[in-house]
Specification:
Layout: H1 2-33, H2 41-56, H3 62-83, H4 107-116, H5 123-135, H6 156-162, H7 177-190, H8 197-204, H9 208-223, H10 231-237, H11 242-257, E1 266-267, E2 271-272, H12 274-284, H13 294-299, E3 302-303, E4 309-314, E5 323-328, E6 331-334, E7 349-350, H14 353-359, E8 365-368
Antiparallel strand pairs: 1-2, 3-8, 4-5, 4-8, 5-6, 6-7
Helix pairs in contact: 1-2, 1-3, 2-3, 4-5, 4-7, 5-9, 7-8, 8-9, 10-11
């Protein structure tokens, strides 16, 4: 009897060990591919079962069972990675010189406008990038606090001078996609493109961070590494790394809720105050745990601006004058700061890009997470 028990225990330990080895092997394969996540737990389980089946039912050596599990699981993982539908980061088929990063219906407009105004090979992608940065491909055409309007966020006075009839209907309409995109191409050409894209984009919005951001988006759109599926996906896909991507996506989703400012707020379901919102977004990126106030933020992280993430804090004056905001990859977010915030309810929202540079002059402290 004791011999039978020993055999059962030994068999169980052997099978368990093979399952563990196979699972670790599969994890290493997926980790090297950068695709390990909860969805692949099923494939890890399947790999373990393959090892069990080969060593028990077929009676093959345990080592062969482990290798077979890793091989079969890796093939299934590659099929998932390569055969899935296009999404964030997978690109998609390129159209008209652009990659899969912009809505297909808009590609002919970017290409046509760039051709008409002789913007060269980079023209379509830069137009697409400006369109995304300014109005999220025309999904948010609300008038900004600076008075910019329409698909490409023109000031009416600028559109009056450079606006054109892009669709040939005899009317120049700032809220018409063809008219706005062709007008932007006209303006960029007169501002120095394609000879000097830096200068041309700077003319569109006088901010160095804006120029860098638009041109980086243009590179990504041109390479086809982004599939537009709404603002959070597109923003995440064009972010420089995973941490910034998570923070950008969460910040944009939260801003879209248009919740009110709440003193002491630290709940994405109801709203934030200034330091609560900054603390929460930092937590999304894994850069901070819990909530702190403006005093805590002023002492957090490293001094000075960061490469991708900068926390701005105002600590002077009385408690009511203290404030905090955060820049994530060139986009400024805050809660409760005033009219520059695009959230009409006054809570967490994006600061109008045209007002961001002036907005941050009120702060006396800059901090950033190490490495970001």
């Amino acid at each position: 009897m004791s011999e039978v028990i020993v055999q059962i225990v030994a068999s169980g330990l052997t099978i368990g060990a093979m399952y563990a080895v196979s699972t670790i092997g599969l994890s290493l394969v997926y980790g090297s591919l950068g695709m390990l996540n909860m969805a692949h737990g099923a494939i890890l389980t399947f790999g373990g079962y393959i090892a069990y089946y080969i060593t028990t039912t077929l009676g093959l050596p345990p080592l062969l069972g482990g290798l077979a599990a890793v091989a079969v699981g890796a093939l299934l993982g590659l099929a998932v990675m390569l055969g899935g539908s296009p999404g964030c980061g997978t690109g998609g088929e390129g159209v008209g010189g652009l990659g899969g990063g912009v809505p297909r219906r808009l590609v002919p407009l970017y290409v046509g406008a760039a051709e008409r105004y002789h913007l060269g090979a980079r023209g379509p992608s830069v137009l697409a990038a400006i369109n995304f940065v300014e109005t999220d491909f025309g999904t948010d055409v609300a008038t900004s606090s600076a008075g910019a309007e329409g698909w490409m966020a023109f000031l009416p006075s600028t559109f009056e001078e450079w606006g054109v009839d892009g669709d040939g209907d005899g009317v120049k309409d700032i809220f018409s996609a063809p008219d706005a995109i062709y007008s932007a191409a006209n303006y960029l050409h007169d501002s120095g493109a394609p000879g000097d894209w830096q200068e041309a984009v700077f003319a569109y919005n006088h901010a160095d961070w804006y120029v860098e951001k638009v041109l980086r988006y243009a590179r990504r759109f041109s390479s086809g590494t982004v599939e537009s599926q709404g603002s959070s996906c597109a923003a995440a896909a064009t972010a420089p790394n995973e941490v910034v991507a998570r923070m950008l996506a969460a910040a944009r989703v939260e801003a879209g809720k248009k919740l009110p400012y709440i003193w002491g707020g630290f709940d994405p379901r109801t709203g934030f105050d200034c330091s609560g919102g900054v603390s929460w977004i930092l937590g999304i990126g894994g850069l901070f745990s819990g909530r702190t106030d403006t005093t805590g933020l002023a002492a957090w992280g490293e001094p000075g601006p960061g490469r991708w993430v900068t926390v701005y804090v105002k600590t002077t004056g009385d408690a009511e004058e203290e404030h905090a905001a955060i820049v994530i990859d060139g986009v400024l977010y805050e809660s409760g700061g005033g009219g520059e915030n695009e959230n009409p309810a006054g809570g967490w929202g994006r600061v109008d890009p045209g007002q961001a540079e002036a907005f941050i002059t009120q702060f006396d402290t800059e901090r950033h997470p190490r490495g970001y």
